[in-house]
Write a structure and sequence with these properties.
- The protein is of the alpha/beta class and 418 residues long.
- The protein has 17 helices and twelve strands.
- The protein has helices spanning 11-25, 42-49, 62-75, 93-100, 118-130, 156-163, 182-188, 199-203, 206-235, 247-255, 261-264, 298-304, 320-326, 342-353, 361-371, 381-390, 402-417; strands spanning 2-8, 30-36, 53-56, 78-83, 112-115, 140-142, 167-172, 239-244, 272-275, 290-293, 309-313, 333-336.
- Strands 2-1-3-4-5-6 form a six-stranded parallel beta sheet, with helices on both faces. A six-stranded parallel beta sheet has the order 9-8-7-10-11-12, with helices on both faces.
- β1 (2-8), α1 and β2 (30-36) form a beta-alpha-beta unit.
- The radius of gyration is 22 Å and the shape is globular.
Length: 418
């Protein structure tokens, strides 16, 4: 029986994908395991599982390379990485390089690189080839985004929302990066390559400085965004404002690693309902007349459910990355973040006209380009992934020299055995 291991980084962010794929694997002749990469007992568990296939996330740290090398050398595991970021400005070379990763590894280490959509596959795939991290096109796969599948899954949140007779507005937050210090960015290892560099060299790196600038400007934007929510709630007491936290915010909140002060400001307001569990926004959208966001893939997902969107735009900022990330998708409505009544104005329109949804060809094309989405009836990425995992896959023998092998063994002893 084939043993498949789902190796996650952030469970709050990745569990929905895993859950949907595992559901499709239920009737297959496979045994499924789910483990976290930061588990201190991971190597011990790997020797118990001995996985034939590992479905995991792309390389962002040197430690991941060591773990994947252990899997390849010890168990001949086939490794598949799944990039769950599909909405990027692929014409910006620095952004593409960031998602490829800063660390060198053999083109045989990762057997398959999987993506949501064809644009990610094309541009990230080209950069992987340039950096000699893939052998050929056959290693690039496009499946779509399992979270965009329409699933009728009731939970306590949908029950509460459904039973509330008020008009509802869904608002997304996603400002965890504003909580990061410069040392946090260094520790994350995925902003710039830190190996062989002094702290001074890292702090002076162009990309690192650009990231720090973005964080400072996002802090200002975040404060204004939270004020917008509070102001809208007070101006519209008969509307229920559902505030859905980003998975990274949920992870931080659960671990209590940092205090999220900007979310505390939303507490104890009668018509603000905070969801701090990682559930797909797709299960909430059918009950909402409007979605408010800061610039994310939610524009695309809302379009599937014919829910209009309001994007609070960044203006008058110097950081190009922050601005472009905010403007990639097509929203139904736009407003400047400095317009204090932006949400309220849109809510007034919703009250007057009812359904504010508008079709547009840009979003339809982006759904295909970024998510491989054509129509809801044939869209089953989780089934495609499950079928792929159960099919005949090619194992690439790793090319690891003595020096790399020594580093891998030393890493294993230091982190998991001693």
């Amino acid at each position: 029986m084939k043993r498949i291991l789902f190796l996650y980084n952030n469970y709050e962010r990745e569990y929905t994908n895993i859950e949907l794929i595992c559901h499709e694997l239920k009737n297959k002749n496979v045994k499924v395991f789910v483990e976290g990469i930061i588990d201190k007992n991971l190597v011990k568990k790997l020797f118990y599982i001995k996985p034939h296939i590992v479905f995991t996330f792309p390389i962002t740290t040197q430690n991941q390379i060591y773990i994947y090398e252990i899997l390849k050398v010890c168990f001949h595991s086939i490794i598949i990485t799944f990039t769950t970021e599909g909405l990027l400005d692929y014409h910006d070379k620095d952004i593409v390089k960031t998602w490829v990763g800063f660390y060198d590894y053999s083109p045989t280490l990762i057997d398959y690189h999987a993506y949501w959509g064809r644009l990610a596959a094309k541009y990230i795939g080209q950069e992987l080839f340039k950096q000699d991290k893939i052998l050929g096109k056959y290693q690039i796969k496009v499946f779509g985004n399992p979270m965009y599948e329409k699933v009728n899954k009731e939970n306590k949140y949908t029950t509460i929302i459904k039973d509330d007779i008020r008009e509802k507005v869904l608002i997304l937050t996603g400002f965890s990066i504003t909580l990061y210090s410069k040392q946090d960015l260094i520790n994350a290892q995925d902003v710039v390559k830190i190996e062989g560099k002094s702290k001074k060299e890292i702090l002076e790196d162009k990309v690192f400085k650009k990231t720090c600038e973005r964080i400072e400007e996002e802090k200002i934007y975040c404060q204004k965004y939270i004020y917008q929510i509070i102001n809208a709630a007070y101006e519209n007491p008969n509307i229920l404002f559902i505030v859905k936290l980003h998975p990274q915010e949920i992870l931080i909140k659960k671990s209590r690693s940092k205090k999220i002060e900007y979310l505390d400001k939303l507490k104890n307001i009668d018509n603000i309902y905070i969801i701090d569990k990682s559930i797909p926004i797709g299960v909430l959208l059918p009950y909402c007349g409007l979605l408010v966001h800061y610039g994310s893939t939610s524009d695309l997902e809302s379009y599937i459910y014919k829910v209009p969107t309001l994007k609070l735009e960044l203006n008058n900022v110097s950081n190009k990355y922050a601005v472009e990330a905010n403007r990639l998708t097509q929203s139904t409505f736009y407003a400047d973040i400095d317009d204090e009544s932006a949400i309220s104005k849109c809510v007034m329109e919703l009250k007057k006209k009812g359904n504010l949804f508008k079709e547009n060809t840009i979003t339809q094309q982006q759904l295909y380009d970024y998510m491989n989405y054509i129509d809801e009836y044939s869209y089953k990425p989780s089934r495609k992934i499950a079928d792929f995992l159960c099919g005949k896959l090619k194992y690439n023998k790793p090319k690891i020299n003595i020096k790399e092998l020594y580093k891998m063994i030393n890493f294993m002893i230091k982190n998991y055995i001693s």
